[in-house]
């Protein structure tokens, strides 16, 4: 029997697609056992598939958080995050901490790095005032989305 990790093509693509589809079709908020024995709430409120946030625009009520899941089966199951864009620091041109600048701050909301099939809470959203915020992936700054706190 071949391991999913040992094979990158053929039946593995089908198996990965089936796993991703089963996660996406699960009852909202229903806890599911994870391979490491932990419990993950699937499906997440926002997730990644094919290097894109779904949905790309997130609406949340002030004082609440939401969950972020990585269901991306593309290119070897990369780790993704959902973090506030910090100008010049978390997206190109990355010059916020160049010599003499030192202006980078921590993002006000972040999921941390989320491995494939895992779900994390996006912490800090509950402390945001109403408004519109941009977010990105710390590993893939071309991935973009918008958070609207109402």
Overall description:
- With 150 residues, the chain is mostly beta strands.
- The chain has one helix and ten strands; from the N terminus they run αββββββββββ.
- The protein has one helix at 11-24; strands at residues 30-33, 39-42, 46-49, 52-54, 57-60, 66-70, 83-84, 119-122, 131-136, 144-149.
- The strands form three sheets. Strands 4-3-6-8 form a four-stranded mixed sheet, with no helix packed on it. A four-stranded mixed sheet has the order 5-10-9-7, with no helix packed on it.
- A hairpin with a 7-residue loop joins strand 9 (131-136) and strand 10.
- It is globular.
- The N and C termini lie far apart (51 Å).
- Residues 1-38 have low confidence and may be disordered.
Structure keywords:
four-stranded mixed sheet, mainly beta, about 150 residues, about 10% helix
Q: DSSP helix count?
A: 1
Q: Poorly predicted ranges (pLDDT <50, ≥5 residues)?
A: 1-38
Q: How far is the first residue's CA from the last residue's CA?
A: 51 Å
Listing every helix as H and every strand as E from the N terminus to the C terminus, the arrangement reads HEEEEEEEEEE
| Number of E-type strands | 10
The value of Rg in angstroms is 17 Å
- Helicity level, as a percent range? under 10%
- Lateral strand order in the biggest sheet: 4-3-6-8
What kind of sheet is the major sheet? 4 strands, mixed
Principal-axis shape: globular
Strand content of the residues, in percent? 25-35%
Average pLDDT reading: 74
Structural class: mainly beta
